[in-house]
Amino acid sequence: MPAYSSRHETIRVIIDMPPHTQYPKRPVQAGIRVNFPFDPSEDPGMSDHAKPSDVTREQAEAAVRTLLRWAGDDPAREGLLDTPKRVVKAYSDWFSGYDSDPAEFLLRTFEEVAGYDQMVVLRDIQFESHCEHHLAPIIGRAHVGYMPTNRVVGISKLARVVDGFARRLQVQEKLTAQIAQCIQETLQPAGVAVVIDASHQCMTTRGVHKRGVSMVTSQMLGSFRHDARTRTEFLQFIGIQGGHR
Ligand SMILES: [Zn+2]
Questions:
Q1: pLDDT for 101-128, tens place per residue?
Q2: What are the pLDDT digits (tens) for 175-184?
Q3: 26 CA → ligand 1 middle, Å
Q4: Catalytic residues
Q5: 14 — phi, psi (to 5°)?
Q6: All structural domains of the chain with their residue ranges
């Protein structure tokens, strides 16, 4: 199934890509279209809660043994005996985002902020995710900003939102849009900005084998989208000017 083209509404995602962050395997251009808003019924990555799984732990471990055989090894040899169990356990950690509703992290807000109505930015939020095409790690950093109207959240909550979406199978563009959309819908600030800078191990360890390449995506909503000064201020806060860091 094509990653982006099959669904309904689309918006433009601004992709900031300095020349050194070319992504030759799957070229990304400014103006790429992704689905927005994502329809939870079509995308388990946006569902409110984990879907009841009809897969048992035993079946999951058997599937790992199959992959070990496929790789050319013997799942019955001593060093691999506990591997299926470990992999299944690791999956519970890597994909724990399906058990969370990131919007819930934003429900507790603080209103006594003495009229503070300027930008709030949390930068360098490290995250680990997995690409939905190869199950390979995506390692990167997210920078999140919003322009509060009358409520702010504890800043750790923004990092939790990032993790809630990162700990699912992802495409970086989708991850970026989901974080921004979640904050916009839940907090209803004047605007939201999300920039993600990440490297994709499906690209560094296989395929074109290009190391040291990172991909930068950004999603700007509200005042960050419409007001160039606000956007520039945010990019200065996170240390990206003219697309370079
Ligand atoms: Zn991949």
A1: 999 999 888 877 777 778 999 999 999 9
A2: 999 999 999 9
A3: 10
A4: 131-134, 172, 200, 202
A5: -80, 120
A6: 10-39+104-237, 57-94
Which single residue is written with the structure tokens 């300095």? Answer: 18
Q: Are 162 and 126 in contact (CB under 8 A)?
A: no
- Dihedral pair phi/psi, residue 90, rounded to 5°: -60, -35
By percentage, how much of the chain surpasses pLDDT 70?
77
CA nearest neighbour of 86 among 110, 104, 114, 65: 65
Tell me how far CA of residue 102 lies from CA of 135, 159, 173, in angstroms.
Answer: 22, 10, 17
pTM score: 0.76
- By C-alpha distance, which of 50, 8, 44, 23 is closest to 173? 23
Which backbone phi and psi does 109 adopt, to 5 degrees?
A: -125, 165
Distance from the CA of 196 to the center of ligand 1, in angstroms?
16
Domain 10-39+104-237 CATH (choose: 3.30.70.920, 3.40.50.1360, 3.30.1130.10, 2.70.50.60): 3.30.1130.10
Q: What is the Å distance from ligand 1's center to 233 Cα?
A: 33
The string of pLDDT tens digits covering residues 30-63 is 333 333 344 434 444 444 334 457 899 999 999 9
